[in-house]
Amino acid sequence: MIRLSTALAMALALAACSPDSETVSKAPEGATPGEGMGGATLADFKTDTTLKDLMAHVIDFSAFGVWHNQGWLIDDTGTHELFPQDEAGWVAAESAAFTLAEAANSLLLPGRPMDDDRRWVDWSHQLYTAAKDAQAKALAKDKQGFFEAGGEMYEACVSCHNHYVQGDAPGVDAKLPQLPNRTPPPPGTPVTPQQAAPPQNQ
Predict the structure, then answer these.
(1) Domains of the chain
(2) Which of 78, 110, 112, 183 could serve as a FRET partner for 54 with CA atoms 20 to 30 Å apart?
(3) What is the mean pLDDT of residues 9-30?
């Protein structure tokens, strides 16, 4: 009798965990079928990190993990290519882009958007798309494509900063600090490979 009860309990437990269970397959109220949040609700999101800290320690850090691994550095010793020189370098660049893409989603969590202006969503999506493109190009070791995707990331950041930092003030340029490695060297310029510096906030 004890063995039968144990077997029955195990069977019920397995049935409850089955993908066919109503608890698992039923989408939350208001959610599109197939886009369920499981048992999570909006109240379950942890958003106590300030937007300033999120930008400095996640968004900016990841973005510079991309930007510092692309382009060219021109100094008194010549022109140096900053693209990764080995597999580990490309993996790090790809991971930075991947992290940035997911971090762009975090800008849309409850309480994060600055206002009801849809542009906040659009710029977050633009950053996500550009970061995903950078990730794909890094995976393919496509230097030019990776460089161009970094430019798209920059444009998304600048557009958002122009509006939310400076409030679209006439005559005010709220662009991020100009990256020193965004100008391609003239054709025919000798270029020496140089490993990019670790990402840092600017």
Answers:
(1) 50-193 (1.20.120)
(2) 183
(3) 41
